Amino acid sequence: MKSKNLAERESKSLYDTLYQWVNYCIYCIMLSFLPSILIGFLSFCLYAINTFLWLIPIILFSLLKAILPFHGWRKFFSYLLDQMASNWVALNTINQKIFTKTKISVNGLEKLEKKQWYLVIANHQSWVDILVLQRVLHGKVPFLKFFLKKELLYVPFLGIAWWALDFPFMKRYSQSFIKKNPHLKGKDIETTQKACQKFKHKPVSIMNFIEGTRFTKAKHQAQHSPFKHLLKPKAGGIGFVMSTMGDQLNKVLDVTIYYPNKTPNFIDFLCGKMQQVQVDINITDIDHSLTGDYINDRAHKIRFQKWVNQLWLDKDEKLAKLHQQQ
Questions:
Q1: How far is 295 from 173, CA to CA, in rounded Å?
Q2: Residue that wins the pLDDT comparison between 67 and 311
Q3: What is the band of 2 on the pLDDT scale with cuts at 50, 70, 90?
Q4: How far is the C-alpha of 204 from the C-alpha of 82, rounded, in Å?
Q5: Considering just the CA atoms, what is the radius of gyration of the chain in Å?
Q6: Comparing C-alpha atoms, which of 175, 14, 24, 15 is closest to residue 98?
Q7: Beta-bridge mates of residue 144
Q8: pLDDT band at 17 (very low <50, low <70, confident <90, very high)
Q9: Which residues are CB-neighbours of 267 under 8 A, at least 6 positions away?
Q10: How far is it, in rounded angstroms, from Cα 106 to Cα 282?
């Protein structure tokens, strides 16, 4: 036992040394002094090259995963593909550190674990949110995965990459469609449950922007949102996740993203114009009384929506305090 703990400490020490060395090298070649247009162009090129280089092996290994009938090999390839995707995120982060001086302040990272099953919820203001979440949570939690519509499986190249990375594909039927085809009632949950079987023995972080779209003042006014800094939450998405994976998920990761200056778009981010972002992470255990049948149990649905609404009230209050500090 002592030798194992010693090996773990030595491994961590080696990792910390390597991490510090990489950061020092990045500091030495920082190019944030360049004109913003040039930074944007060079940064975009590196993103494209990094994506292309990892997409090729991901597709190749995904084909091997599909062809080989052995469960052990498929499990091995799933872990290997996740590591490739994780390396893609790591290189994107290096790209960001080379070209930008963005200050990212984070609270709540201390209690995160890579061997937990998380439901990750966040407010949504920009496509940059995804890059911020990937950078902040990389190496702290299992690789972030999104529930995708089944139709996205047929997107060229990316569809097979998402499938290879075990992104769950869900097929939803409308109430009107169910009325015409009652034999399909509950089939959508059953399909998603099958897709999530692979996560029983493999930790995962399921990500959901429950506002359903990016926050803008126009959308906020059109919705008559009762929240000052947020759109109305759509509980259906995570209600569906909890109906299918509730007994597998351990914790809720409630992430609040705040841009003190202005909400950046992707071009601003590429060009190094995003100066600062604050990220607050709140971790709570999942109350398994919330893991019932969201689709068919009305009482459970109301209870679940109240829980989501309270999460959003707390998040709105947190954002209000951050705005007041400016």
A1: 11
A2: 311
A3: very low
A4: 10
A5: 21
A6: 24
A7: 205
A8: low
A9: 40
A10: 11
The residue with tokens 């841009």 is: 259
| Paired tokens of 285 | 């255990």
pLDDT for 268-322, tens place per residue?
Answer: 998 888 889 999 999 988 887 778 777 778 888 888 899 999 999 999 999 999 8
Q: Amino acid identity of 205?
A: S
Q: What are phi and psi of 279, to 5 degrees?
A: -125, 125
For residue 310, the tally of other CB atoms under 10 A from its CB is 10
At 7 the pLDDT is 44
Q: Which of 155, 153, 151 is nearest to 163 (CA)?
A: 153
Tokens standing for 326? 């400016």
Could you tell me the residue ranges of all domains in the chain?
Answer: 102-324
Does residue 295 contact residue 243 with C-beta atoms inside 8 Å?
yes
Q: Concatenated DSSP letters for 251-285? A: EEEEEEEE-SS----HHHHHTT---EEEEEEEEEE
The second-level CATH assignment, the architecture, of 102-324 is: 3-Layer(aba) Sandwich (3.40)
Given a contact cutoff of 8 angstroms between Cβ atoms, the answer to whether 126 and 270 are in contact is no
Helix, strand and coil content of the chain, in percent to the nearest 5, comes to: 55, 10, 30
Q: Give Cα 320 distance to the centre of its chain.
A: 24
65-101 burial, b for 16+ CB within 10 Å, e for fewer? beeeeeeeeeeebbeebbebbbebbbbbbebbbbbbe
